[in-house]
Amino acid sequence: MCKIEPTGGGWQSERESVPGTREPRLAIFSWKKSEPEDPKQPGAGGAAAEGESAAVFSPEKALKFFQHARTVDEATNYEYAAQLWLSGLRFDPNNMDGLQGFFSSIAKFNEESGGKKGVSKEVAKSVSGKGDVDRFLMSLLEWGQRPQESTLAVRAAEAAAALGLKEPTLWITERAFGFVLRDKKVRKDLLLKCSECFGKAGAFDKSLAAAEEALRQNPTDGALAAHIRDLAAQATMSKGGFDRSGEKGGFRDNLRDADKQRLLEEQDRIVKSEDTVERLLAAAHEEYQKRPGDLPTIERLAKLLLERGKLADQEKAYQLYMNSYNDTRQFRLRELAGDIRIKQARKKVSELKEMLEKSAGSEMIQRMLDTAKEDYAKLELTEYKARVDNYPSDLSRRFELGKRYFALGHYHEAIEQFQEAQHDPKNRAASLNLLGQSFQRIEWNDEAIDTFRHALEVKDIMSEVELELRYELMTALQAKAEKEQDIPSAEEADRLASGIARQQMSYRDIRHRREAIKNLLLTLRAPKGGGA
After folding, report:
1. What pLDDT, on the 0 to 100 scale, is given for residue 416?
2. How distant is the alpha carbon of residue 299 from its chain centre?
3. Distance CA 60, CA 506 (A)
4. Which residues make beta-bridge pairs with 12?
5. Does pLDDT of 466 surpass 90?
6. Hey, where are the domains in the chain?
7. Which DSSP string corresponds to 463-512?
8. Exposed (0-12), middle (13-18) or buried (19+): which is 422, by Cβ within 10 Å?
9. Among positive and negative, which fits the CA dihedral 206, 208, 214, 216?
10. pLDDT number for residue 273
11. Does the global pTM surpass 0.85?
């Protein structure tokens, strides 16, 4: 392996040791063998015969390459810097600084050469080989030279996933997914590969989104639809923290500890000082100018704009999301834009409520508040309908849409959504509760009673939820008894009312309900007047 330096007369090669060591770079570049290495032999920085060698994992050696890569990049020798980044990644493939450093240097190399010149044979030779790490590095090199190629991006994601590199796999697949959706002809097979890679990275919500995009290309694929239902369940379990995964050994174990990752995410949500936000925004704007089509960069900028929170920032973030959605057709971007509008509408309602409290009895403010509430409810309904249309197998979204229908009194439509949402373990009890209430609102008392009974059978429901379900079952039984003059229903309602009153006398209107049910029972049990 040689260092390539420009000179006045063209290009020349120069052997160089690994920075900070006395070892020839070729002797340690790729492989570790039982006998001393000979740079001329296979495996010394080049291809190795199958079975001859094994990949070495050494973050310390990788760091030396990365440090040298930064120095070379600053000296504007971008091709050699890219080679050094790859050399370091061979020893620590999971290193995100190395991965991002490589793409930064190769992008500068592409820009400098106008995209007409590929890297030298020496660079390509440095990543040739038959091992998984070799394939990973080669996929990065090939994609880095043609960054808009969706096929190469997906291939790099697959290579990272094959090594069990969760963070690099997620980083690469996010970009690959965007490129696939930008293609004139969106390929279903590439979407499915993205879905698989997202799954291997533990990003099950994104795996689900990619699979749903694939189904959109062929809505008649029944097997894929069934697979999507499984993914939706997995995404729900993952969000709830019920799944635990991970492997130990080699660089597969060199991932961020889950607790540390969670802490970092929590720190990211902490309110920052104005100066900190301004610095982060400036950096995000600069990155966006360099890579205006990069989705993670766009989302980072939009998030920071929303964190600063000015009205103008909200509009900028909204436009960023919508423009990116129009470019990529990734609905999650449209969803993020919709969240901004929902938040704005909710804030308007809150402000009008405060105004009304300060000006009690103002008819004008009351009318404004009523209009704002109606607009807010309609906006939420429109947004959640679009979300369910785009993610029909996402049961959490169906539950949220059902709640919006219920709030507006559209009970038949709410029933349809809750009947699907009840299969989501996270929202099962709540879905059955609202489903029963929806049946009761349309006076389907038998269906409501059966639904509330079913809800009470759900395991591990919270005590306050159980209390509410018993109350709703009581009201449904009372309604049935009144409508059908049914004594057994009234008797069961009476027992429920008595139990709730003994447990919590102040619960809702239980004292009045209990009295009404007692009177109903007396009426139903009273002898009927009759003839002879």
Report:
1. 96
2. 12
3. 66
4. 5
5. yes
6. 3-239
7. HHHHHHHHHHHHHHHHHHHHHHT-HHHHHHHHHHHHHHHHH-TTSTTHHH
8. buried
9. negative
10. 67
11. no
Q: What is the mean pLDDT of the chain?
A: 82
Q: Which of 42-46, 442-446, 527-531 has the lowest mean pLDDT?
A: 42-46
**pLDDT score recorded for residue 8:** 35
Q: Kindly report, residue by residue over 234-247, the tens digit of the pLDDT.
A: 666 665 554 444 44
Q: Work out whether the CA dihedral 350, 356, 359, 364 comes out positive or negative.
A: positive
Beta carbons within 8 Å of 335's beta carbon, 6+ residues apart: 383, 387
DSSP letter string over 426-461?
GGHHHHHHHHHHHHHHTT-HHHHHHHHHHHHTSTT-
Residue at 152: amino acid letter: L
pLDDT of residue 291: 84
| Rounded-to-integer distance, Cα 380 and Cα 405, Å | 10
Integer angstrom CA distances of residue 179 from 103, 287, 385: 16, 19, 27
Whole-number Å distance between alpha carbons of 336 and 342: 10
For residues 171 and 101, what is the distance between their CA atoms, to the nearest angstrom?
A: 13
Taking the C-alpha atoms of residue 240 and residue 150, their distance in angstroms, rounded to an integer, is 32
- Residue 323 makes CB contacts below 8 A (sequence gap 6+) with none
Q: Is 115 left (phi over 0), alpha (psi -120 to 50) or beta?
A: left
Q: What is the mean predicted confidence (pLDDT) over 208-228?
A: 85
What is the rounded distance in angstroms from the CA atom of residue 507 to the CA atom of residue 471?
9
For residue 474, the Cα-to-chain-centroid distance in whole angstroms is 40
How many other β-carbons are positioned within 10 Å of the β-carbon of residue 399?
Answer: 23
Higher pLDDT, 364 or 244: 364
CA–CA dist 30, 87 (Å, integer): 8
Single out the residue of 185, 178, 180, 147 nearest to residue 333, CA to CA.
178
Cα separation, 3 vs 79, in Å, equals 10
Q: Where are the beta strands (DSSP E) in 234-286?
A: none
The pLDDT confidence band at residue 393, using thresholds 50, 70 and 90, is: confident
Amino acid 313 reads D
Of the ranges 279-283, 326-330, 389-393, 451-455, which is most confident?
A: 451-455
**Phi, psi (rounded to 5 degrees) for 302:** -60, -40
Sign of CA dihedral 187, 193, 194, 196: positive
How are beta strands 10-14 and 3-7 bridged, if at all?
antiparallel
DSSP 66-119: HHHHHHHHHTT-HHHHHHHHHHHHHH-TT-HHHHHHHHHHHHHHHHHHTT----
pLDDT tens, 261-300?
443 343 344 455 677 778 888 888 988 988 888 888 898 8
Residue 205 is predicted with a pLDDT of: 85
Counting every residue, how long is the chain? 532
